[in-house]
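quick one before i forget lol
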Amino acid sequence: MKGALAALMSALWLGTILAADAPAGASMQGFARYESNKWLFRTCAGHGKVSALNARGLPFIDATPDRILTAAIQQRWQQSAEPLRGIYAEITGYVEEGRLTATQLHRALGWVASCAERPANIPDGARAWAAGNEPSWGFVLDGKSATLRTMDGVLTWPAAAWKSDRSTAVFEASDGAGRIRVEFSDGLCSDTMSEAAFGRRAVAAVNGVFYAGCGLIR
């Protein structure tokens, strides 16, 4: 396994140099697997129980901020009970000249066994999602509203415009439910309770109460 990890680091480091400014593309889901002495990404095709891996595996380049994808795959692979099946990952990227360039990691999960068993805890229409523990909380933003769930109940705000720069995105809203500010920043974020690695850290401030966790933006 150490040899494979070294190969992963070497191959993706070269890819980062070649495509450091790669633009964002489409959202993709699939498995990164170490095959024939190299890492390949096979995307999931179809939906629900009929979803399966594409037969063709693509070599991929890590152009995510600070090579978060590499770190997430390495972390999940080392801790996976079945590393040979690969690491399930949700990313943003594009395919060009027979290779995939990943520009943003959403999340990586080592326990997902197949495309048909992909977790459904994040709504398909979510533009942003975040969650944390101790205390438990969850945030979802779709095209119409933003919802925060905590042990105390559910609060809802109308959707609002993002404020963002190269590494940080902020959602802010205020109405009858009070004021909410959720900041997403680039960086590897590990959720040990869900055995997941995310590409963004999230901090929510809601009516003077702070919550910390991991998240993603699509």
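fyi The longest helix spans residues 2-18.
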